[in-house]
Specification:
The protein is of the alpha/beta class and 315 residues long. It folds into two domains: 6-122 and 300-314, ATPase, nucleotide binding domain (Nucleotidyltransferase, domain 5), CATH 3.30.420.40; 151-297, ATPase, nucleotide binding domain (Nucleotidyltransferase, domain 5). The protein has 14 helices and ten strands.
């Protein structure tokens, strides 16, 4: 029997790449034939060769999971962190076509997947908050806008990395005596197995302390957010930064206040529900009129990649 037409959706981030293989003709648009996973798929963070190898490995795993021979699919959508601009998209697209992954290929940033997974018309604003942060949106006229996504040196406000860094700074300032006392100091020492504040230097600057591992230390700040003034101030400031990103995108797109969807994803937002409540309470403190009307959590952005691949195949 011949294999029915297939499509591929790929979600590539800073730590993992997820690929889903689905049938092109799926009335319910919910069938997944095979799932695969591999390492980082962010071409800017991991490098193009590493990202491409991991994307290929995830796709191979999806075919294996589906117990189907690997073949060229009708359409594939790659939603990759670090690929929000034309230069990255063209390079990944050219590679995917050259190795025969799909007849039609689309490469986009990872934020678009979130909105596509949340809404069939792909309109509204998507907010990612994990190791980094980014807001991206589309209006019904097809205009798009983004805010943030500048990386850990120039941006990523409100992200896990930014929260962890702010917490560590508050801790060492307390150790110096140039900042108020905070429970974050002993908490970080315990978390990093540092016997003295000075040992934090060796732990934080160790070669194995990647951006992703450092960002995971944001959990310490969240743990003390309701009992420690420094932690509370950090989380409050971070939530306002995320709110500003969404507001900026909504303003640029002329979205109707209270009538647009905000799709939320990323490890920090998905694992820290209190952060979402804080965002709802304080993120729109300055511009209440631009609040979203509907909030949607997206746990599997790769669903959006499959939806976009299906649209691409039909075009």
């Amino acid at each position: 029997m011949s294999t029915p037409p297939l499509i591929l959706g790929v979600d590539g981030g800073g730590t993992k790449t997820v690929a889903w293989l689905a049938p092109l003709d799926d009335c319910g648009k919910s069938s997944v034939l095979g799932r695969g996973q591999a390492g980082a798929g962010n071409p800017r963070a991991a490098g193009f060769e590493v990202a491409q190898a991991n994307i290929a490995a995830a796709i191979d795993a999806a075919f294996a999971d589906a117990k189907l021979p690997k073949s060229t699919v009708a359409a594939a959508c790659f939603g990759l962190a670090g690929a929000g601009r034309n230069v990255e998209q063209q390079r990944i697209s050219a590679w995917a076509k050259s190795v025969g992954i799909a007849e039609k290929v689309r490469v986009t940033g990872d934020a678009e997947l979130i909105l596509a997974a949340a809404k069939s018309d792909n309109c509204g604003v998507a907010l990612i908050c994990g190791t980094g942060s980014l807001a991206w949106g589309r209006n019904r006229a097809g205009d798009v806008a983004r805010c943030g996504g500048w990386g850990y040196l120039m941006g990523d406000e409100g992200s896990g990395y930014a929260i962890a860094l702010a917490g560590l700074r508050a801790a060492v300032q307390a150790a110096d005596g140039r900042g108020p006392a905070t429970d974050l100091l002993p908490a970080f020492m315990q978390k990093l197995e540092a016997k003295s504040p000075e040992e934090l230097i060796a732990r934080v600057y160790a070669p194995e302390m990647t951006r992703e591992r450092l960002a995971s230390l944001a959990s310490v700040v969240f743990e003390y957010r309701s009992t420690d003034e420094a932690a509370e101030a950090i989380i409050s400031s971070a939530s306002r930064e995320l709110g500003r990103m969404v507001i900026t995108v909504a303003q640029r797109l002329g979205l109707t206040p209270g009538d647009y969807t905000l799709a939320l994803s990323g490890g920090v937002l998905l694992n820290q529900l209190n952060y979402i409540y804080q965002l709802a309470a304080e993120g729109w403190h300055e511009l209440q009129r631009l609040r979203p009307g509907r909030w949607e959590m997206v746990e599997e952005p790769v669903r959006g990649a499959v939806a976009l691949a299906r649209q691409l195949a039909a075009s």
